[in-house]
Amino acid sequence: VAATTSCQVLPSARCLFDEPFQVKVGGLRVGQMVTVKAASTDERGVVFSSSATYRADGDGEIDLDRDPSLSGSYVGVEPMGLLWSLRTDTLHWYFFKNKVVEPMVVKLSVHEGEGEGDGRMLAEVTNERFLIGDGVSRLPIKEGNVQGVLFTPPEGPFPAVLDLCTFMSEKRASLLANKGFVVLAVEKSTLILQHFVSHRWTAVVWINGCSANVGFPLYYKKRQILSPLLYDFSKVIPTESGARIVKCCVKNPLAEENKGSLIPIQQAKAHFLFVVSEDDLNWDSKGYVDEMVQRLKHHGKDNFETVCYPGAGHLLEPPYGPYCPSTFHGLVRYPVLWGGEPRAHAVAEVHMWKKVQEFLRTHLSCEETKTKAML
């Protein structure tokens, strides 16, 4: 009697977005070659897919935590490879997932044979990956020109985090709220300094940031406090894919004419976690952090720590989402390469996410004078 092939997602087919899963396949013939596929559709209707070929063991089973992929979207033992290797045929497309009340839905299926062909499907299962956990509330906030979303866990009090997004996203904020932080996500372009400057910020997570104020002047109480560091677009590097490399386009913040854009980080009393992707093609994140660290040390400061990720690109996010090599850049108005190698980038995101939470828990408490952090 032929065994029925099964495909399981453990410990549960429903989990949080930033939680790993274990995929197991059973009921195969000894040594049978099969292709495990994953597919997910983003909020704009674009389909992402991945696949990997595996050989069943002596019990007719495959365990992605143990067994290597022999070919496909990745090779080797990669328990979460089907997720970070998800790709779309649409060029320069980012996997849009921002509706936190709806899960990322991943269809996993097992097919006869090797490769990306249409081998007969033997089993399938659906994995739902939620951005917001049970009991976490979501409240849109609007005060003057400031718009954001506040995420609050159940049963406080909680340490508070302000999540500054280059372009508005609720993903990171909602996932942090699941970990016990109350988080306000705000798009940087809507930030009005006087709303926040009176607070005592005790911890700052600085992810692939610049040491200067880029693009637009910064005002406080109608007075410019930092001039903008501008781009030199003659230094754009085109590529065959149509995406461009803009890493060298940002002008030198240390040049005399640009020093008015430098962020006076040496005056800050907060603790800093500098997160650096060494293969960032958006700009020179490593160089900027090295300069800030040198400046802090020069002023006798030791209120910082740095973590660097070789092989990681600019877009460091909470883990287990699809790696994004290039997208349309909202500021320069054309597609750019973000850098990074897919596997190294995925490893960096897992480590970074744990490091950020550890850092925030170390430097935040729920005391009145020590409650706020900035991402």
UniProtKB/TrEMBL annotation:
It comes from the Eukaryota. One of its GO terms (molecular function) is fatty acyl-CoA hydrolase activity. Residues 18-143 form the Acyl-CoA thioester hydrolase/bile acid-CoA amino acid N-acetyltransferase domain. InterPro entries: AB_hydrolase_fold, Acyl-CoA_thioEstase_long-chain, BAAT_C, Thio_Ohase/aa_AcTrfase, Thio_Ohase/BAAT_N. GO terms for biological process: acyl-CoA metabolic process; fatty acid metabolic process. Residues 199-365 form the BAAT/Acyl-CoA thioester hydrolase C-terminal domain. Belongs to the C/M/P thioester hydrolase family. This is Uncharacterized protein. It comes from Sparus aurata (Gilthead sea bream). The lineage of its organism: Eukaryota, Metazoa, Chordata, Craniata, Vertebrata. The gene is LOC115592085.
